[in-house]
Each structure stands twice: as C-alpha cells, then as structure tokens.
Amino acid sequence: MNNKTIFYLARHGQTEWNVAKRIQGQLDSLLTAQGKQQARLLAEQCRTLNITQILTSPLGRAVQTADICGQILQLSPIQIKGFEERHFGDWQGKYTYQVNTLSDYNEITSQITDCKPQQGESSKQLLARFENTLRKELTSAAKDVSLIIIHGDILRCFMAQFVPSLTPNSQSQEIASTGYDYKNAELIALSYDPESGTFSSL
C-alpha cells in the first residue's frame, strides 16, 4: 500500500535584499514588485495540484509570499516554527561582497558541514532543524497536499540529497559542493514515506 505524502517546496518571492545582494538569514526585507508577481505565478502553477494547505516559514518574506498564494488558492497559510531560514549570525544584514573573501565563505555557503558564521547556525544544524520539523508536519497531516514556502539555504541543503554526485560515500558529504541557487518561487515536487522516514524527488 502506498502511503506516501506528496508535498511541494518553494522559495519565497524576490526581496529587496535579494536584489541588493544582502544576506537576510533571519532578518528580513519586503518582496519586490517582481517578487509579488512570482508569488502570483507560483499560485497559478499550484491550481491543478490539489493543494489543501499552505505551510510557511514565519519570516516576513515567506509569509508575504504565502499570503499571496493563499488569496489565489483560497487557503489560509499556517506559520511553522522551524521553517525559518538559516541564522547567519554576524553575517546577517551584510552585503555579500563584505564576506565572500573570508576563508570559510565557500564552506559555509556551498557545503554541508559544522562550519558557521560567528553567532550563527551551521548548515548541518539547519538541515536537522528543518527535516525534523518537516517530518513532524507531514506526519500529522499525512492526507494533506502541502505547499511549503521556505528559503534558499534550506533548499540548498535539503535538496543536496537528490543530486547524484552528492550522494554520501565515505567522507564526500563533508566536502561536496551544494552551491545550487534555487530560484525565487521555484516549485519543487517531492514525496515523504512515513514508514521509512525517507524523502523522494518527483
């Protein structure tokens, strides 16, 4: 018997800080006009997917995206603690050019390790937080089809498991580059098997 739960992940729409190339982390900025349009187009994509609930990060840019989708899909988004973007510590609010010459920049932004900005969260910590929350939500609403609005670094870390070249073997998980930039409002279809606790890309 197939008890897999179908769900969809999407990054929030474009923000003012995305355009300015500032690191948001758990700080925030408003959606641009383009970001709002991306959210509307995302909702239109979802019209035929039988979405029954919208779950969202509590951060403003994700809530703003989810609210636009909710208006179109006639659903009230639910904010989920644990779906927040990675906390980038001292880097938050800085422009990319201010930190991208640091020796640990590539490890922090393009790998999945314990390395983290000062006062921040590592990619491994982020991934554990997100996956634990996601499993809990999908298990408690197994019959729902969820649209989940989250963030770029969550997607980078979570989706690495579906890239063949990044499949863990020996120590490769520590050094593999996962620097794929998931586009604003890009829709990703996945499934979750509660019996095995595994995720699959559709």
TrEMBL record:
Q: Name one Pfam family in it.
A: His_Phos_1
Q: Which GO terms describe its molecular function?
A: hydrolase activity
At the top level, the lineage of the source is Bacteria
Which top EC class is given? hydrolase
PROSITE patterns found in the cross-reference section? PG_MUTASE
Q: Which UniProt keywords apply?
A: Glycolysis, Hydrolase, Isomerase
Keyword presence, Amino-acid biosynthesis: no
PANTHER family given in the database record: BROAD-SPECIFICITY PHOSPHATASE YOR283W-RELATED, HISTIDINE PHOSPHATASE FAMILY PROTEIN-RELATED
EC?
A: 3.1.3.-
Q: What is this protein called?
A: Histidine phosphatase family protein
